[in-house]
Amino acid sequence: MTSVLRAQGLGKKYHRDWVLTGCTLDVPAGHVTGLVGPNGAGKSTLLNLAAGMLAPTSGTIEVCGGVPGSGAEQLAKVGFVAQDTPVYAGLTVAEHLRLGARLNAGWDDALARHRIERLGLDPDRRAGKLSGGQRAQLALTLAIAKRPELLLLDEPVAALDPLARREFLRDLMETVVEHGLSVVLASHLIADLERVCDHLIVLVAAQVRLTGEVDELLATHHRLTGPRRDETSLPADQEVISASHTDRQSTLVVRTEGPILDPAWTVGAIGLEDLVLAYLARPAAGLRPSLELLR
Ligand SMILES: Nc1ncnc2c1ncn2[C@@H]1O[C@H](COP(=O)(O)OP(=O)(O)OP(=O)(O)O)[C@@H](O)[C@H]1O
């Protein structure tokens, strides 16, 4: 597997707070990787480190084989659309494209113009007078038209209407297939991620809780429903990710490579949203709360 982003023990501290710690990651090239986690988990921090906008406090991060932000060649390889989709309020749409062409050796002007035209953005309109969604589309166009190897998108579709969102994700998939682009996409919209991502990173409280290929993660996680029982009684190879109980019944999400043989359980498949939610609700690693605590 060729990696487009590799982190080893990556950490970032603001003042006295670690907002990212011990992150070890391998993001595969040529895929769309979803980055999910609750507010404040550290997603934007990770993307800013990958873009070279921030420097790590500990550990290392390598992007497209280089140190993030380490020079013109490195900057050309990475497209980044930050959470607030920054554009220059005083410049028109056309001026943004001219600036993009000036600053980026690999600029694809035909792609940029075609996209702006298809979106119906007036080239003479100042960016400060665009709607939030239109500004996001402009920022995305600039990032895609520089033809990066890796595109880092921090909640890019949050401001787009549902149709624009779907079209943007379709475009993105086409670009990934046509140009072998790699994408890391932070989003709270798991249904969107389910449509486009084949890899996943779940960040919770500054740490990587889960990472892997979506199909494999879905195949190794199961929902078990059955008569109430304490989950500590499960076989050692079945890792309990989440548990909820009523007086009579227990529902667990477990991770295991092997089959579930206990006939007391009804075994169901799990979707991406439930999988992510199970990890978000999970106490920190190593804690196996007792049944009573979970009531
Ligand atoms: N410049 C900064 N100075 C101090 N603390 C910061 C700074 N930027 C972010 N933080 C803190 O770092 C933590 C992680 O923030 P980050 O923006 O990376 O989270 P996030 O997962 O992207 O959240 P969201 O989903 O809300 O966008 C938060 O607790 C935040 O308050």
Automatic annotation (TrEMBL):
Gene3D superfamilies: P-loop containing nucleotide triphosphate hydrolases
Molecular function per GO: ATP binding; ATP hydrolysis activity
Domain ABC transporter, residue spans: 5-230
A Pfam match: ABC_tran
Record carries keyword Nucleotide-binding: yes
Keywords tagged on the record: ATP-binding, Nucleotide-binding, Transport
PROSITE patterns: ABC_TRANSPORTER_2 (PS50893)
Residue ranges of coiled coil: none
Protein name per UniProt: ABC transporter ATP-binding protein
Lineage of the species this protein comes from: Bacteria, Bacillati, Actinomycetota, Actinomycetes, Streptosporangiales
